Amino acid sequence: MVMVNEKVAHPQDPHKPTEKPVIHCFKCGDPCKGQVLRVQSRHFHLKCFTCKVCGCDLAKGGFFMKNSDYLCTLDYQRLYGTRCQGCREFVEGEVVTALGKTYHPKCFVCSICKRPFPAGDRVTFNGKDCLCEHCAQPKSSSPKEIVSSSNCAGCGRDIKNGQALLALERQWHLGCFKCKACGNVLTGEYISKDGAPYCEKDYQSLFGVKCEDCGKFITGKVLEVG
Q1: How many CB atoms neighbour CB 159 within 10 A?
Q2: Cα distances (angstroms) measured from residue 1 to each of 56, 63, 96, 124, 159
Q3: CB neighbour list of residue 205: distance below 8 Å, 6 or more residues apart
Q4: Cβ(43)–Cβ(36) below 8 Å
Q5: pTM of the full predicted structure?
């Protein structure tokens, strides 16, 4: 967001000829006299510097620029803003991105204890929920083996700072837990095959069994006859 902080005064002296080119308002095209606003290389009358959408005055507060248009905060957020997956409010400033979703740091919480994940803590994704170290510990079959490894199972690089995701008994950068087939970040439940995660669509396409009658993929138990 940009703040308006510069006004340019152009005193008019009737006894001297104009030496510099006349400055025109970027919006209305008329010459600028008296106080004007300068935004980057553009000049505006005070009354002309308004939101492209709602027309409110932008001279007294902050604004956003999108596709060369100037927008107030409310309209920019409504049209282009990102909402927090937790509280559904618009996200500004520091954010957490996990499994393809965006959160306020305070809204990215453990599914069991509902406490925010401290910076640097590991996050365990069990295929449906994100759990903190404490809540995931009883369900971990080999916690020592997981903690001892510091390499991401996705990219292979070292996990030094920030949160790590624990899934399939390995740890991943939050943005590296992706479907092996399509490469999209897994944002919900996944299906594992030979130690690799897949989204349901790709797993069914590669390994699924179709019903002979309806032609749809079968999930759960399959009854074999004959």
Answers
A1: 21
A2: 16, 6, 20, 35, 32
A3: 181
A4: yes
A5: 0.45
> Per residue in 100-111, pLDDT tens?
788 888 998 988
For residue range 178-219, list pLDDT tens digits in order.
888 898 888 767 777 888 888 888 888 887 766 666 666 555
Residues linked to residue 44 through DSSP beta bridges, in sequence order: 37
Residue-wise DSSP of the chain: -EE---EEEE---TTS---SPPPB-TTT-PBP-EEEEEETTEEEEGGG-B-TTT--B-TTSEEEEETTEEE-HHHHHHHH--B-TTT-SBP-SS-EEETTEEE-TTT-B-TTT-PBPPTT-EEEE-SS-EE-HHHHGGG-S-HHHHHH--B-TTT--B--SS-EEEETTEEEETTT-B-TTT-PBP-S--EEETTEEE-HHHHHHHH--B-TTT-PBP-S------
